[in-house]
Amino acid sequence: IKIKSVPTKPIEGQKTGTSGLRKKVKVFMQENYLANWIQALFNSLPPEDFENGLLVLGGDGRYFNREAAQIIIKIAAGNGVGKILVGKEGIMSTPAVSAVIRKRKANGGFIMSASHNPGGPEYDWGIKFNYSSGQPAPESITDKIYGNTLSISEIKMADIPDVDLSNLGVTKYGNFSVEVVDPVSDYLELMENVFDFSLIRSLLSRSDFRFIFDAMHAVTGAYAIPIFVDKLGASLDSISNGVPLEDFGHGHPDPNLTYAKDLVDIMYGENGPDFGAASDGDGDRNMILGRGFFVTPSDSVAIIAANAQEAIPYFKSGPKGLARSMPTSGALDCVAHKLSLPFFEVPTGWKFFGNLMDAGKLSICGEESFGTGSDHIREKDGIWAVLAWISIIAYRNKDKKPGEKLVSVSDVVKEHWATYGRNFFSRYDYEECESEGANKMVEYLRDLVSKSKAGDKYGNYALQFADDFTYTDPVDKSVASKQGVRFVFTDGSRIIFRLSGTGSAGATVRMYIEQFEPDVSKHDMDAQTALKPLIDLALSLSKLKDFTGREKPTVIT
Ligand code: VG1
Ligand code: CO
């Protein structure tokens, strides 16, 4: 094939955040913006990691993905990649890309998604790169890519026509080829190996159990019917918003109590279903609900870990180890302790779990931000989390006769609290604040940390320690610093602040609040009520209102 050399100039601001590069679509549509980043990536990888190699390309179906796919394919070919496997119409969820990279032994893959951020001409676009074990590229790579975006002068593009992504099959262009694949089949095969599908089917096909899954018009729309309906016996009307749309039907494809309001209303309404779940733009997040009951993601991962061995065949010898991101509540720590499992606390973002999994130290992990997953792949996995929960409920009810009262989602959670205690948890997000004020607040907090010492009194709380979280990877010894300011008190309560690394405008402040409650008689309290004193303390110690000018958070989870 003929390769064109396209002259270009560096473009500012192409540094990746918590999970890939995210900007407004309009920014990505500027001439050479995406092309520069993709070329900088090839300039950063060792040639043996892609020359004549295999890469995977997926995406969540959002606006601009079609154009972007063509740009990525042509630059990959221009840099000597041998073959690209791409999901039909450019669709493949983040977890499915990770699964396909692993199964097909690819060198890596791209995901065209800004995840839970809204899509459409006025909204966001994004790109993530995953490496050969299917995990998000580590900071050592993303830092190199950023460095190369600052000095780029040439893009190598194959002179080939646009590839038709609407039909399955292989198209050859000299030494380069593109294979359009079904985005579901490899992923479905993996799920069938991880879970006991007949156990799940026994629950989903019961007439006394009602299930609902909200795909939020995002990528899991492509997976929900083949998996839940065709394979597992759920009824067709149990899938809502099941068609992926370029603008997610004007929605914000973030499965939480604010943005998945339709589902929440159904679950809290009169005679609601027994089980509800939703997933985000690219299919890696999940929200789990019972009838009139919300499972916090921090509890969710702990409960999955505690029940995995009996309910999920993949874990039949027990999980190897557990891990959570730093702001995620300590509910998982309690399970690790009780089961005597190795336990790890890593910075926010899935890329920090991969090394531990590759080293065989970690099986189940999660983040408070609606991310849950395991070492079956190297990404968090929304549909996996839903199947894990249904497996747990199905296992508990497998001997129940029709008409007998079933063990519910809230029964499982309350039983867990009774055994382990309850970690009350809440996160306040202040989205799109002025960057200046937000940065000043973080500086102020760091200063406060440097002056603080054990025993300092904050109202009724005594400080155990305060720091700005630093993580040293136990496998490759790489260090990630400044990962969030935390105040940890002697009773285990925690107040944490960090700035989001996934927004596309301004700064988003995240405030995380946690308090442990061993007393069962207090477990039914509303989290906002239970946490009120600590929330007030967090707001006053950070001077958040003064620095950001915000009276109220945009989102509470
Ligand atoms: C957020 C979450 C983090 C998650 C990341 C990517 O990052 O807090 O836990 O891993 O999004 O999720 P931040 O930096 O905005 O807090 V996804 O589903 O957007 O790829
Ligand atoms: Co996502």
From TrEMBL:
Pfam families: PGM1_C_vert_fung (PF24947), PGM_PMM_I (PF02878), PGM_PMM_II (PF02879), PGM_PMM_III (PF02880). Residues 14-153, 186-289, 298-419 form the Alpha-D-phosphohexomutase alpha/beta/alpha domain. GO terms for biological process: glucose metabolic process. Its cofactor is Mg(2+). Coiled coil: none annotated. Its main location: plastid. GO terms for molecular function: magnesium ion binding; phosphoglucomutase activity. Its EC number is 5.4.2.2. It is an enzyme of class 5 (isomerase). SUPFAM superfamilies: Phosphoglucomutase, C-terminal domain, Phosphoglucomutase, first 3 domains. InterPro entries: A-D-PHexomutase_a/b/a-I, A-D-PHexomutase_a/b/a-I/II/III, A-D-PHexomutase_a/b/a-II, A-D-PHexomutase_a/b/a-III, A-D-PHexomutase_C_sf, A-D-PHexomutase_CS, Alpha-D-phosphohexomutase_SF, PGM. It catalyses: alpha-D-glucose 1-phosphate = alpha-D-glucose 6-phosphate; O-phospho-L-seryl-[protein] + alpha-D-glucose 1-phosphate = alpha-D-glucose 1,6-bisphosphate + L-seryl-[protein]; alpha-D-glucose 1,6-bisphosphate + L-seryl-[protein] = O-phospho-L-seryl-[protein] + alpha-D-glucose 6-phosphate. Keywords: Carbohydrate metabolism, Chloroplast, Glucose metabolism, Isomerase, Magnesium, Metal-binding, Phosphoprotein, Plastid, Transit peptide. It is found in: Plastid, Chloroplast. GO terms for cellular component: chloroplast; cytosol. NCBIfam families: PRK07564.1-1. Belongs to the phosphohexose mutase family. Monomer. This is phosphoglucomutase (alpha-D-glucose-1,6-bisphosphate-dependent). It comes from Nyssa sinensis.
